[in-house]
Amino acid sequence: MNKRQTRIFAIASTAIASVIFLGLTVDSHRQFPTLTNSDNIDDSVVRGQNVWHNYNCINCHTIFGEGAYYAPDLTKITQHRGTPYLTAFLKDPAQFYNEQTHRRIMPNLNMTDGEIADVIAFMDWVSKVDNQGWPPRPILVAGGSIPGTDLSLTQQSSEGQAEASGLPPGARPVSSDNNPIALGEALFKTAVPTCAACHSMAPGVNLAGPSLANIATMAEDTLKSGDYKGKATTVEEFIRESIVEPSAYLHPGAMYSAGGTSFMPTTYGQDLSDEQIDQLVAYLKSFK
């Protein structure tokens, strides 16, 4: 090409690229309200965003792949954990983890009840944004398999009592004001046989048993389906039934049952007290 042709080509290609860029920009802005569910941004969500910034949560956590990558990504946290769990955790993280026994250093931010409700509302809005699958690999925190121990002492709350119970450090309730969800998490890691040995709480990670990351949603969907023939009518009852009568509903998959009988042990109803089962139910129900 001569200089004149080169100049024309450069101008034309720049013009075409600019038109395409502007078209894509206009189309993106056209889709933003739908992709971000902007209609659901209410006062609570706005206040929650302010709480997120005021407490510098992004200094440790990430959302949409942006942040410090020091602590778990929270983009989809409300789809993994329910409001009761998140509320209890934010009120006092030491009920679940502390630096001495778990090597977790989530501080107690001393949020008010209103701030906790607002930041959860903000995170719930974040979780429903269509972020095209980003981040592709969120940071998840999951405890390892922990040998089972005597559960009769898991109710004891002080550090000295917890040590006396023989519970591994990663499963000890660490606060003197333990709530059912925190105790349920400890039981999940220490029941005999150990629940955590067969079930993962990470989405899509199936071990000897199916992942329980969305057990509350799965339970609700199962109760509405025509396949369920058990006695439960609520999510809580379904989870309890799954613990004490695992064959009442057989999870799809040949690796989980055979001949109409679940491979899950049937001894939890005898080995755990009603109170302990209630704690397990409270913990598992928090996973949506």
Architecture overview:
The protein has helices at residues 3-36, 43-54, 77-80, 83-91, 99-102, 113-127, 159-165, 180-190, 195-198, 215-224, 235-244, 268-271, 274-285; strands at 62-63, 66-67, 257-258, 261-262. By secondary structure, it is mostly helical. The protein has three domains: 1-36; 38-141, Orthogonal Bundle (Cytochrome Bc1 Complex, Chain D, domain 2), CATH 1.10.760; 151-285, Cytochrome c-like domain (Cytochrome Bc1 Complex, Chain D, domain 2), CATH 1.10.760. The strands form two sheets. Strands 1-2 form a two-stranded antiparallel ribbon. Mean pLDDT is 81; it is low at 141-166.
How do the strands and helices of this protein lay out in sequence?
Layout: H1 3-36, H2 43-54, E1 62-63, E2 66-67, H3 77-80, H4 83-91, H5 99-102, H6 113-127, H7 159-165, H8 180-190, H9 195-198, H10 215-224, H11 235-244, E3 257-258, E4 261-262, H12 268-271, H13 274-285
Antiparallel strand pairs: 1-2, 3-4
Protein name: Nitric oxide reductase NorC subunit apoprotein
InterPro entries: Cyt_c-like_dom, Cyt_c-like_dom_sf, Cytochrome_c550/c551-like
Transmembrane segments: 7-26
Second-tier CATH architecture of the largest domain = Orthogonal Bundle
Helix content: 40-55%
Coarse morphology:
extended
Terminal-residue CA separation: 63 Å
Low-confidence stretches: 141-166
Which structural class fits the helix and strand makeup?
Answer: mainly alpha
Compute the number of structural domains: 3
CA radius of gyration is 24 Å
Q: Please give the order of strands in the largest beta sheet.
A: 1-2
Give the topology string: H per helix, E per strand.
HHEEHHHHHHHHHEEHH
| Secondary structure tally: strands | 4
Tell me about the biggest sheet?
Answer: 2 strands, antiparallel
Can you tell me the CATH class of the largest domain?
Mainly Alpha
The CATH topology of the largest domain turns out to be: Cytochrome Bc1 Complex, Chain D, domain 2
Question: What count of helical segments does DSSP give?
Answer: 13
The CATH homologous superfamily of the largest domain is termed Cytochrome c-like domain
Strand fraction band? under 5%
Mean pLDDT: 81
